[in-house]
Amino acid sequence: MSAEVLAGYLRAQATEFLRALRLHREAGTGAASSQGSAEAALALRRAARRISGSLHTFQAVLDPGWSEAMRPELAWVSGTLALEHACSARLERLLQALHRLSGTAALPTRGPAGAGLPGGSGGPGGAARSAAAVAAGGGSASPATAGTGTTTAPERGSLTVGAAKAGALLDRQLTLARTRAHSTALQALGSSRFHAVADKVAVLASEVPLTPAASAIDLRPLAEAARERLVDAVAALPLLTAGSPYNAEALVHGLSPDPAPHPQDAPWHQVRLLLRLHRYAREVLHRAAETSGGAGTAAGAEPTAPLTAVVPAPTTVFPAVPPAAPPHDLRLLVTGEALDRHRDASEASAAAAHAARTPRIAPATAYALGVLHADQRHEVEAARYAFQLGWQKDVLGSS
């Protein structure tokens, strides 16, 4: 499988990067155009991740000096642009959990993520602050009591004072973090460092720096190596423990005074990254199958060895997919979504623990944050259980 296929894939992703950058600049920074700006930032991150992942997997066919210098810069772009969305999603997740644990109604309907300016009422920070304001009032105020000083007994299922104050504290901390992330992203996009990255991507869109021996290198063994790294990393996970629901393993170290993240989460985060690299390698191989007309390979089938570690390869025939679409694998979809939930719950639990360490907070507030932290650690455990089911069970075959 020729390296020219990889060159075509990288050129296409570089073009997507430049197109998203142009859309982001055209959208501006006003509140009315913030949704388009958020979508452009997401497209920028998506293209940067795919270019960086391909440079890692297929580095043997690329100029080593260029690829080693390019990868950390693309990771910096993707990570910087992801911070604002992560803060907004984390706050929404924690406020939803507070309401769920209190038995209250769902949070008010909000605008799309990324809409509005930081600190404005139209953005996720403003929507979250509105929800926190409702929480601080013990639920939504009725028209009869709104604007009056009358105090009524809270209805069953309304937020307690501790939960309401916990929501307000999380709102202040995460909204501040989101505002800082927004400012950091704007500064990064206007920096000389980002302009240098954009210039290199513009060159990549027309010329890919391959090694002199690239024409003699087959891409399939390199993609297979990425799959094997994923399989080895999954084999090192405690899947036997994760196969038992409510095993409380994710709560270990929950009372540790160390503010560092749970050490047991790191291997799962690493598997998530390796799974992403495997997906991107499959996209490159799928492009090669399209280039060759797909002869000898079923549409959507994996050109390399199937993704299996515990069970034999499934014999299910894959449905046909449009030529422009990447190959679909339900196993990758199920496990990838589980690992995304694992990452989100892990970071949300860390945010709750960080808020609980705020000096001089009321015991009731600290208690609510402790319950919230435990709830998110249970979500971590549930995500691990879903991952091991998706990995070990033949999700492609009939049940």
From TrEMBL:
Domain CHAD span(s) in chain numbering: 1-396
SMART domains reported in the protein's UniProt record: CHAD (SM00880)
Region Disordered: start-end pairs: 106-158
Gene3D superfamilies from the UniProt entry: CHAD domain (1.40.20.10)
Compositionally biased intervals (Gly residues): 113-126
Biased composition (Low complexity): 127-154
InterPro entries found in the cross-reference section: CHAD_dom, CHAD_dom_sf
UniProt protein name: CHAD domain-containing protein
Provenance organism: Streptomyces prasinus
